[in-house]
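tool_call: predict_structure(chain=1)
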Amino acid sequence: MPVTDTSVWNTLAPRNMELGPRSGSANILTDWRIIKGDDDIVWLILDRSDESTNTLSEAVLAELDTALDDISGMGAKGLVIRSAKKNGFVAGADIRDFRGVTAQEEQEVEKRMTRAHEIVDRLAALDIPTVAVIHGHCLGGGLELALACRYRLAISDAKLGFPEVLLGLHPGLGGTFRLTSLIDPVEAMTMMLTGRTVHAKKAKSLGLVDTVIEERHVENAVRAAVSGNVKTRRGSLKSGVFGFQPARQIAARQMRAQAEKHAPQQHYPAPYRLIDLWEEHGGDARAMQKAEIKSFSQLLVGDTAQNLIRVFFLREKLKGAAKGESGIRHVHVIGAGTMGGDIAAWCAARGLSVSLSDLDRNAMAGAIGRAAEFYGKKLHSGIERRDALDRLMPDFEQSGIAKADLIIEAIAEKADIKRRVFEAIAPKMKKNALLATNTSSIPLETLRENLPFADRLVGLHFFNPVAKMELVEIVAHDQASRSTLDRARAFCGAISKLPATVKSAPGFLVNRALTPYLVEAFVMLDEGTAKETIDRAATDFGMPMGPIELADRVGLDICLEVARMLKESLGGAMPEIPAWLAQKVEAGETGRKAGTGLYDYDDKGRPKKASDTAAPSPEMADRLILPMLNTCVACLREGIVEDADMLDGAMIFATGFAPFRGGPIHYARTRGAEDIVATLKRFEQQYGLRFAPDEGWKNLA
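tool_result:
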């Protein structure tokens, strides 16, 4: 039946979330509201004004202090803290409060954090039962607020975690000592060191929440908690063992070794500060709290945290471009190779109907197999895995073309083959369907020739591996309609990807900037430098992997095609492509996907690297990184991307460009354009024209 104003669904809608009694005394503040029911249980509801998500700002915490004053005189038998936002409890601290602080402000930051702790401590010290009712996201400062309550009741959709390490920080509002004393300390440290979230059921098994309930049971569960009838689990056997410093020292050594594999200390100090905190003060909550405040304040004013906070806002800017309704419900993917198959699997996992076609039945079988393996690892229930596989439909007859709202072509990187496919499918498409190409380098002006609806052609350039790389380049051309580009960006939002709109040009933005970096590494190989040494120069700079390993991961065949196209377009700005690259591709040695390329690979897809190669020279990183920066400056000057922030975000989220440096343009400005230009000129004299500084450096200085 249709939903009307008088339907039962609208009558029940206000009860979709239990937000306290309908009657009783109420006090409405700016961000909090206080409601006392006839049972003398007080509900303290957080609903930040003019915000879609709850975060903890200084103002929100100050108002919490005021609310606690009011509650102290109410004769309450219990206190419930809950969010009125449908998307979750509290997403963490308001990052805007952290942005732009400097080393000179460290003492002021420490004072502000001390005051915030006093307010949360006041909640923790209440002599009445306190209950946090958690739904959706409960992260960072939000989880620290919940930890200050005596009971935590989680709705089944709750996700809890401490992502501060991703901002170059560790928990700073009591999380370090409250979590390690509540649950197994090693589990607690793992949560904080990795930043990973745990779902409600996992949180219950850890002892992080006391019970998992459905929304309809909230009221009864709250009453049971206030009455002391909720079974709790506090601490663990390991908590007693790790109360002794020698035990913590052994565990801390293992934690540092693990952290070093993923976050080198010279670039990411926060994990090591957290380990130090626990090792030194894990048996003394008061001392650990004092050390937490000081350590957090020092980290916050440091370059790493400020640059990672910058990256947070770059992500928010890209997410903002993905808002809107795409109208895309069915996606048809042409090409079941690594990229096409993984794009199809990702879209189906995000709830879209997907048909996948390929002439090669073995390729199709491989794509479905990879999808099933991916779903088995990443989806949380058998029902979710089953539904995702149901939505992913092998389509040998290509019948999905006529039904699709979006068709994504992901076949060989050759313009003539792509155009023939476009010519064959165009008559079968719906009138309002979009046609997208996953080309990594071919200008769309070349691909749109003879296409009867160039206004609905767009580039959707995904990056490998699709499941890990957040960015998608939205490639625009001068005949693409505004509606097409808007729908393409909204589609990215619907599948949890970050869209970066770039102008159609050889290599677009990311591959154009990345190719000089890769080819310079090939030149170094020809000079006799060990591939492991080259890769280490890049990882020492902060790249997630070196250029040799990256070339193998991308595929040497794709590297060769992109390098040839850019060499034709840019001439002397690109080094000569080594002959051995084409020979390897012809021999089928295309990299990780073939089991051999520049490296050989084991059966788990890991490169076999020598461990006894020389350390990189001081200038080696500059030889790799500065051609990339030079190209980024050229792309900015040519208008390939609209601004420096978009460029920095695209390079971080598509290539993993050292996030702690804040992006290539931000790094260039921090280091100084003059210094980079001088180094490029020196390299130009030493190595050739490809290092000639771009004219755009004048605008950046």
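agent: Residues 1-14 have pLDDT under 50 and may be disordered. Proceeding to next step.
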